[in-house]
Specification:
alpha+beta, two-stranded antiparallel sheet, 4 helices, about 50% helix, elongated
């Protein structure tokens, strides 16, 4: 189906690939992109959230859709461009 995330799972006793949507599918994707942002040196949770929000493509009603559609490439590029504070000892 058009707007779902393909997942391998057991549904009604049949192992296969099925399409799902909703927060249970979106949450692991956002967590993964947050980890990519942190790998670019952005460790502050508020900054990670700001990057995720700033680079998302708006979908419509913010109450229903939040910041919009996640952009993994946009978020990681922005995080890389911002750099991070390096401490010297």
């Amino acid at each position: 189906p058009k707007d779902g995330i393909l997942q391998n799972t057991n549904l009604d006793g049949v192992d296969g690939y099925y399409s799902f949507n909703g927060t249970s599918m979106a949450s692991p994707h956002v967590a993964g992109v947050a980890a990519l942002i942190m790998a670019q040196g952005q460790k502050d949770p508020a900054r990670v959230r700001e990057i995720l929000t700033q680079t998302a493509t708006p979908k419509g009603d913010a109450i229903k859709y939040g910041a919009g559609i996640l952009s993994a490439s946009g978020a990681t590029k922005l995080a890389e461009g911002l750099g991070s504070v390096k401490l010297r000892h």
